[in-house]
Design goal:
Length: about 220
Amino acid sequence: MDAAALAEQIRQFIAAKGFNHNDRLPAERDLSEQFGVSRGDLRKALSLLEEDGLIWRHVGRGTFIGARPVLNLADVAYLGELASPAQVIAARLAIEPELARLAAVYGTRADFDEILACSQRGRAAADWRSYEAWDNNLHYAIAKATHNKLLVYLFDIVNAVRRSTVWGQRRDTKTPPPDHFSFAQHDAIAAAIAARDGALASQRMREHLNAVRERVLPALSG
């Protein structure tokens, strides 16, 4: 079995088990036995999933769901307990429009290509978990394009808390629908950044996050 096929089986295993962000996967020994593969083949497949932001690995601690957090897990859990979903979105609105503006000013062509690729991969995601991983990668790529390490660190803190928060959104389809609201909004943000229009990039990001707030917060209170 090649690495890509095995990675897809592991992806389906993760979805079926309903793991949450930062949950630990079974040990490599157990996964190797379950899928009938060598540890070496398993690690190649896990590397592919890690590249997609679906898992992260820590030597001596194991393999975890989601992208690698910038903070340790105890800090993420602590901050997650302090912040409500509404506060998380408010924090994102406070910083991410400015990150989009700065990305348009300081980003390189390689940065723009990465942002666009993340938007396209999110649109082509095979399931919601994959879409959420590429959504995360897109917003991180925008932060990284500012080339401001302090701002990237602040983004990482808010993002780690966001990904540890239980949002409880209903998913009525296996994959995001073709008209999912974020697709066009992500494309608009990417286009404004690539055009080096900082004001428009900031506006498009604010519109996107307001749309997220309007979609998510009523569902949580309903």
